[in-house]
Structures are given as C-alpha cells and as structure tokens.
Amino acid sequence: MEWTYTLADAIQLIIPWACMLLLSVVLLAYSVLYSHFREPSYLSGLFISLAAFIYVFCEAMVVVLGWTDYYFIAPYFHRIGQLTSLWFTPALMYFALTSWKLNTFLNKIISLLGYLALGVAGIVTLTAFILPDSFISSMVDHTRVVLSPGDFGRGTLGSLYGFRDIFFGSYIVFFSIIAISRLIRGPRDSKLVFVLSGLLFVVWGALDDMLFYQIGRNFFFNSIRFSRVSVGLTLMVFLFLTALLNEFLKTQHELEETYSQLKKSEEKYKILSEGTDQAIFSLSRDLMFDSYNQQAEQLFSLFHHHNKPLGEILRLQTPESSHILADTLEEKIQSIKDNAQTSFQSIVKDPRTGEPQEYQFQFNPIPGDRGEYIGRASAMVASRLSGYVEYEKLKLNIDNYILVIDDVSTRLTHALPRYFDAAEVMHIKMGLQEMIINAIEHGNLGINFEEKSMALEKGNYRELIRQRQNLSPYKEKMVNIEYILTSTHVKYLITDQGEGFDCNHTLTHLKKKVDDEMLPHGRGIAMTQIIFDKVTYNKKGNKVLLEKNLH
After folding, report:
1. Residue 187 to residue 235: CA distance in whole angstroms
2. pLDDT value of residue 121
3. Among residues 188, 293, 312, 386, which one has the fewest Cβ atoms lying within 10 Å of its Cβ?
4. Is 384-549 a CATH 3.30.565.10 domain?
5. Neighbours of 206 (CB within 10 A)
6. Domain ranges, ordered by start, for the chain
C-alpha cells in the first residue's frame, strides 16, 4: 500500500517529539528543585515525569520506525512504553504521600498500594518479556485498521494487557477520589485543581487510545492519528509541576513575609537592647557568647574575650580578694546549665574605671532543644527605700546552700547606702559573704582546710559540698545570722552549729600555710579583718561578730 504524506502524518511525527522536549524541561526542573531543596515531593514528581518521558519516547520510536520501514523493531518499544504505565502507579502513590497531608490511616493505605503497585509492575514486566504474547506480541501484528505507517509494528494485545488497563485505571480512580475528597472536605488547596486537571487529560488520552486499539477509531480528532496518552501525560506532568511550583512560590512568599517581620523584630530588638543600660546577650549550650548588645560587649570586654565562655570571663573579672566569688562561681555557672531560670549576683570590673562593681545576672533558657540562653546583667543600685531606713534589726536562719549567700548578703546590706558609700557597702558585703560561707563549709558541713585543699586540687570540691549537704548530721544544721544597723554602726553576728575551731591558732597556722604554698583559698578571714573594724570569735569558734563603725 502506498502512502501519501499529509499534514496529519506530520502531526503524528511531530507531537511525540514535541512532548519529549517539554518533558525534558520538566525533568530538568524537578532535578534542579530536588538537588537544591531535597523535598520528597520533588522526587516523586521526578519519578512521574521520568515514567511519562519513557512512555512518550517509546511512542515516538514506534511512529518513526513505522514510517522508516523498521516496524519489525517497533513492537519492542510498544511493549516497553505500555509497561511504563505500571511503573507510573507506584510513583503516583508516592506523589500522594509526599505532596498531601493525609491522616495516618490513609497514609498506610496509600503506602500499601504503592508497594503492591511496585510488586505488580515488576511481575508483569518480567512476564511480558518471558511470554511476550501474553502482553504485546512481537511476532503478530495488531489486527485493527491503521491510519498511517506510524501505526505499523504495534503487536497484538494479550490478556495481560487487559489486566494492565484495569489495574492502572483502578489506581487512577483511587487517586482521583482522594484528590476530589480533599478538594471538597479539606482546606482550600489550589494545587489539587491542577492535579485533578492533569488526571483528566490522562484519562481522556488513555480512553481515546484504548478506543482506537479496540475498534480502530478515535472519539476525538478521529481524522488525525497521534498518541493521545503522550499528550495527556505531558499536560498532566506540567500541571503537577505547576501545582508544586505554585505551592513553592506561595511558601517563598510566606518566607519573605516572615523574614521581613523578623527583620522588623530584629530592628526593634536592636533599638530596645541598645537603648537600655542593661547588658543583654545570648549564650550557646556551652555558654559561649552568640550575640550581645554594646553594653555587654563593653562589660565583658568581648572585643578581646569573644572566644571565651561566660564562666572564664567572670573568673577573669573577679577581684583577687574575693574568694567567695571564686568558690561559688562554679555553682552559679552550673545553675545556668541546669536549664532553669537563674539569677545571681557577681562582681565585675567596671570597663571604664577598672573598679569592681556588683551586677545582678538573670538567665532564661530559650525554648527549644538547642540549650541556648538569654542573659541580662545590670549594675546593682540601692533601692529608694534604703534611703529611708534609719534603724533596722533582722534575724535569719539559712540552709547550707551556697547559692543563697547572694540573696542573704544582698538583703543584709540593702539599707547600708544611707550611712556608707558604695565602695564600703560592696566590701562589707564581700566580707559578710566570706564569713557566711565559712560558717556553711567549715562549720555546719565540717569541711576542714586540708579537705578543701585536696578537693580543689582534684576538681571535685562541688561534689564534696553536695555530698555533705545531703548527709546526716550535716544536712540538719542551720546558720543563724543576726543583724543590726544604727546611725553609728552595723553589726553582724553569725552562728553555725559546727564543732568550732581554735581561732588564734588556726589563723596563725593558715596564714603561714597559705603564704608558703600560695594556695587559692584561706585568706577570707584575713580579708574580713581588714574590711570590718572589729572581728570577734567566741571561745568555741562557731560564732563571729562583725562590726563596722560609721566614720
């Protein structure tokens, strides 16, 4: 039979190659998107596009081989192309899982259907090549009427081909039902409209091509022979990509708005943080400075110490004479790491004058699992009420916990600024802290000088303190503090429930030992004697009276 080339023949040749070109663009787009964002939805789109590309390529080869008289090779491409639809079904299930937020039950059903489709595709593919006549024969031509040489080489369809149609169609119906129900019952999702439109084109193409293979004519454009499924798949893949890109652009727009709001919040935070006299900073899990305002940068000399953790910087800032700060600093740092709201006082050298100044620190964990903290530090100032205190008398009983010393010493000195200047108040507070910690450590907890030296050397001093705090009879003991302030003097009487000590002998012995061995502790009482006008121990050594006169 001689054939005359017509415009319809040119269309049959051009359409599959044009579809392949468009599908190549889609494959490239999905590849770029997935390589950049690693989103599973882009990977599922890539699988669907690849299956569509293979199908269209095989259809193009069938047409070309028919027109070039190599139609005896065409049945192999015909078979591969028709098998591709089976591999298309698991990709479609994967697309549903990765692109839609479904409930747990539906996710399980779709996952099972996806694995089933994968298994069926493998079995049918293997059978189609072992027993070709059961699917598409490579020896017997299709018996239906053909419209052009491009239809030559299509083999006779077997029973397995009909099973393929039913299996593929049931998956398309299931996928469509899920999409429609989500569109009707779920929240507004514009990408479902694109997905359903794409499926409509595939169903149209499949039904019209099946009609031709069964009765030799098409319902749509019967005078023009071309692969309706190729066009339908191409349109579907483009619409699927459009749906994902539409969601991507929407997400990008939301991210840009969020970023814009964050920038505004950051600017507001910067204005607020720089406009305060507080040092505001954030710390990482290991207490390294992440961000800070100008006040924090100046207070901690972060220009020189930005690579040091907070604890090390505070140790550098601690005056050499303040042993209580050195002894309790680890407790304070650990309280931050315990991930609870923490506050304490510490002395920091003024960045302008170099003189020690007391600061109130407050730390709050940042919500999340990264273990970060927001910190604030502000110089402690006397309350306005302290200026009205003319006379005060107070009695406290405290437990043997190191961290309470800050609060106790602050309370026992808050009214002093009426009669003493700031430097004297700070020194009185430091001396008071030394005596309270001595009452706790050496008095109630019974830790002698040698035990403390050995524990500090081994680095387990904090463990020793905690062990004694929870051990009888030490844990039942209290420290009693009596305080009186008048217009002429301030007095503190500190009493512990320990065994006491020989004050004169111990002080003489300690001074020589500390000086000879250059120990980092043991100078607290000597420093206190310098700060106060009078330091008097009772005979037992478990009670000390500190007196400071107003000069």
Report:
1. 25
2. 94
3. 188
4. yes
5. 19
6. 7-254, 274-379, 384-549
For residue 200, which of 240, 161, 227, 165 has the smallest C-alpha distance? 240
Q: What is the pLDDT of residues 51-95, one digit of tens each?
A: 889 988 988 888 888 777 777 787 888 889 889 989 989 998 998
Q: Helix (H, G, I), strand (E, B), or coil: what is residue 542?
A: coil
**CA–CA gap between residue 376 and residue 273 (Å, rounded):** 10
Q: Do the Cβ atoms of 53 and 27 come closer than 8 Å?
A: yes
| pLDDT beyond 70 at 466 | yes
CATH code, 7-254: 1.20.1070
3-state secondary structure of 240: helix
- What's the pTM value of the predicted model, to 2 decimals? 0.48
- pLDDT mean over 325-329: 61
- Please report, for residues 100, 108, 240, 537, the alpha-carbon distance to residue 103 in angstroms, rounded to integers and kept in the order given: 10, 9, 22, 75
| Whether 509 contacts 525, CB under 8 Å | no
- Which residues are CB-neighbours of 520 under 8 A, at least 6 positions away? 323, 326, 456
DSSP-based helix, strand, coil % in the chain, nearest 5: 60, 15, 25
Over residues 421-463, the pLDDT tens digits come to: 888 888 898 889 889 988 998 899 988 878 887 887 887 888 8
**What angle do helix axes 228-274 and 7-37 make, rounded to 10 degrees?**
30
Q: How far is CA 199 from the centre of its chain?
A: 38
For residue 290, the tally of other CB atoms under 10 A from its CB is 12
Smallest CA-to-CA distance from 39 within 239, 251, 188, 187 is with 251
- CB count in 10 Å sphere of residue 283: 23
Let me know: does 127 contact 136? Beta carbons within 8 Å: no
Asked if the domains at 7-254 and 384-549 fall in one CATH topology, the answer is: no
Q: How confident is the model at residue 518 (pLDDT cuts 50, 70, 90)?
A: very low
Closest by alpha carbon to 416, among 311, 550, 240? 550
Structure tokens at 386: 């302290």
Contact present, 461 and 452 (Cβ < 8 Å): yes
Strand partners, 535: 546
Nearest 5°: the CA angle 263, 266, 268 is 110
Q: For 274-379, CATH number? A: 3.30.450.20
CB neighbourhood size of 118 (10 A): 17
Three-state SS for 106-135 is HHHHHHHHHHHHHHHHHHHHHHHHHCHHHC
Enumerate residues 6+ apart whose C-beta is below 8 A from 103: none
209 neighbors 225 (Cβ within 8 angstroms): no
Here the tokens at position 548 are 């400071």
Q: Which residues pair with 348 in a beta bridge?
A: 357
DSSP string, 27-88: HHHHHHHHHHH--HHHHHHHHHHHHHHHHHHHHHHHHHHHHTT-TTTHHHHHHHHHHHHHHH
